[in-house]
């Protein structure tokens, strides 16, 4: 599965999730929910023709071990997952599920360590946080050869444009006012 270019809508609330079901958005990133609601939300998204990516690290009650991932992949069946954890990315790739690995730009050592890990795990996309540092978007894209999603602290249309101009494939944001940017 290839993600659309531009802005990807990320939701933290059921209200925004419901609004996106009625929108033209193709993909919904589900950031936070409870494990008990997750299967219902994914089924509902599929019913509305939406592809859903689940941020596994933020699902309350989901443990990112082999058994939790087995439940997620076989019972919930999202189109893709987002995680900081390499075991989640590796498992998603084994199950032919889109894998987005999050990379937090904390310092040079963390960047180098995470780039080395991603060279091994080969996620489908890398989400760089914060997504406000255009030079790092370009550098990481060149280093890994993997499409970049810029996320975190994206607050304005200008932030979106800067990230896309720097080479990001897409920008993820939970700011509803930015979802409609072309």
From TrEMBL:
The keyword Ribosomal protein does not apply. InterPro entries: Aldolase_TIM, GlpP. Keywords: Glycerol metabolism, RNA-binding, Transcription, Transcription regulation. The keyword Transcription regulation applies. It comes from the Bacteria. Pfam families: G3P_antiterm (PF04309). Regulates expression of the glpD operon. In the presence of glycerol 3-phosphate (G3P) causes antitermination of transcription of glpD at the inverted repeat of the leader region to enhance its transcription. Binds and stabilizes glpD leader mRNA. This is Glycerol uptake operon antiterminator regulatory protein.
């Amino acid at each position: 599965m290839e993600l659309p270019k531009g802005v990807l809508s990320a939701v933290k609330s059921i209200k925004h999730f419901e609004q996106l079901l009625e929108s033209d958005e193709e993909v919904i990133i589900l950031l936070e929910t409870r494990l008990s609601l997750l299967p219902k939300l994914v089924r509902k998204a599929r019913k509305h023709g939406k592809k859903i990516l689940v941020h596994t690290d933020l699902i309350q009650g989901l443990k990112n071990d082999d058994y939790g991932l087995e439940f997620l992949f076989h019972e919930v069946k999202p189109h893709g997952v987002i995680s900081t954890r390499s075991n989640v990315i590796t498992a998603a790739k084994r199950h032919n599920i889109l894998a987005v690995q999050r990379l937090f730009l904390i310092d040079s050592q963390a960047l180098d360590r995470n780039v080395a890990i991603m060279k091994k795990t080969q996620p489908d996309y890398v989400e760089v946080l914060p997504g406000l540092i255009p030079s790092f978007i370009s550098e990481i894209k060149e280093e890994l050869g993997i499409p970049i999603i810029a996320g975190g602290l994206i607050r304005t249309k200008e932030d979106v444009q800067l990230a896309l101009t720097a080479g990001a494939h897409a920008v993820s944001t939970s700011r509803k006012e930015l979802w409609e940017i072309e």
